[in-house]
Design goal:
Four Helix Bundle (Hemerythrin (Met), subunit A), 144 residues
């Protein structure tokens, strides 16, 4: 059972992940339309949303510990496959996002594009699977 003062964190974390995904998608559409300044703003906001998520996630788990997945049957391998890929790629995405953002802000556009073609889909996957993990853990197979 999650202590009441920390109970809002899982939904907040899912919201931050969903916000990041929406900003990433919007940023991708904007750059495809040549709207560089708007793209930059969206991507900076996505970094901020993801950084806020990471801080809240670490704080929550430092205070609460691990939350056990209670789903059974088919849900267990699905959940753990998503969770393992999510966590692994979340670790990978941190330096990739920093490098990608840095190259964009320094107007090193060729190098920015070269790494962004890897960063964007991985980051999008991490953001979306973060929301899926939330729903599986707290909504579809909740703790009493």
């Amino acid at each position: 059972m999650i202590a009441e003062q920390y109970a809002f964190f899982p939904a907040l974390n899912a919201t931050l992940n969903g916000t990041s995904a929406a900003l990433l998608l919007t940023g991708r559409v904007l750059i495809a339309k040549g709207r560089i300044a708007a793209h930059r703003a969206c991507m900076i906001a996505a970094v901020i949303a993801s950084a806020l998520f990471l801080g809240c996630y670490l704080f929550f788990h430092f205070k609460v510990g691990n939350i056990l997945f209670l789903g059974q049957g088919w849900a267990r391998p699905v959940y753990f496959a998503i969770l393992i890929s999510h966590v692994t790629l979340a670790i990978v995405i941190v330096p990739l996002a920093i490098i990608t953002l840095s190259r964009g802000l320094k107007a090193r556009y060729a190098k920015h594009r070269a790494i962004a073609r890897w960063t964007w889909p991985l980051w999008m996957y991490v953001s979306i699977t973060g929301v899926i993990v939330y729903f599986m853990l707290y909504q579809w197979f909740p703790h009493s």
